[in-house]
Each structure stands twice: as C-alpha cells, then as structure tokens.
Amino acid sequence: MNKKAEAFKAYLEEKDIKVFEMEELEGDSQQTVVFRSHITTEGQQLPTIVILDESIFALIRVQISPKALTEANQQELLKMINDESAAYKPFKLYLNQAGDLMLDLCLVIEDELKGDTVYTMFSVIINYLDANYRKLMKRIWQGD
Predict the structure, then answer these.
(1) What is the pLDDT of residue 110?
(2) Which of 2, 14, 3, 1 is nearest to 119 (CA)?
(3) Residue 89's pLDDT is what?
(4) What pLDDT sits at residue 88?
(5) Cα angle, residue 85 at apex, residues 79 and 123 outer, rounded to 5°
(6) Domains along the chain with CATH numbers
(7) Could you give phi then psi for residue 54, rounded to 5 degrees?
(8) Which residues of the chain have pLDDT under 50?
(9) From 26, 45, 86, 128, which residue has the greatest number of CB atoms within 10 Å?
C-alpha cells in the first residue's frame, strides 16, 4: 500500500470513521488505493471515492448524476458545467464518456497526506452540493 493510503487509513481508524471501503488495485504500477463512500445531499446518496497513489496527487471524485447528458439538455448542461467549473477553484465538473456528471477535486500532496485536509475538502464539496444540487439536477432534467 502506498504511503498516502496508509496515512489516510490510519487517520480514518484514529478518528473512528467507518464510512469508507478500501480497495487496493492489483497490478497497478502506482499502487493505487481507492476509498469508496458516498455524500448525501438533498436525500440522495452520491457515490464518492478518494483515489490515492504514488503520484503527487490525491483525488476526490463524486458522481453527481449518472447518465446526465441527453440530446435535449446538451447545450445548456455543457454551458452550465463550464460556468460552474470556471467559478469554483477547488474542483471541476465534467461529463465522463458515459455522460455521467462528475465532480473532481485534486489535491497536491508534496510530503505527507493529512487526513484533516482531505476532510476539509469534503466540507467544501458538501457545501457546494447543498447549495447547487437542485440547480444542477434541474438543468439535467430539462427537456426530459
């Protein structure tokens, strides 16, 4: 297991946080470890992962809506995603190849991963989703 994943696992154990399932990816040259959980907003549980490997980066990824992109909402949804990504520094919204609306937050970890830093970023994401989830979903459902 890579050092960042070891540090995050130790942090979760120390704080008695039991909402993550850990998966070490086998055969991965970066020794990637994925911590799976969810964020709840507006009564919805959004799949969330923390990806830690041997690179300088740590990634928090949230699936906001599966299959969000449709022909009917494409133009307005893409514009909104671009506007939101330009307005918020810590993370970016995008559509993956399946058309799922995703949110990525990338941290640079130069020396040692600090669990409190990761959890602070969860607060930033949760606050954003609490304030914007309805607006995002309204745009997704447009034209359906």
Answers:
(1) 87
(2) 14
(3) 87
(4) 87
(5) 135
(6) 3-141 (3.30.1460.70)
(7) -85, 0
(8) none
(9) 128
Q: Which residues pair with 33 in a beta bridge?
A: 24, 52
* Token representation of residue 54: 């041997």
Q: Specify the pLDDT at position 143.
A: 53
Sheet with 57-65, strands from edge to edge, namely: 21-24, 33-41, 44-52, 57-65, 101-108, 91-95
CB 57 within 8 A of CB 108: yes
Q: Smallest Cα–Cα separation from 143: which of 76, 48, 61, 89? A: 76
Cβ burial 108-130 (10 Å sphere, 16+ → b, else e): ebeeebebeebeebbeebbebbe
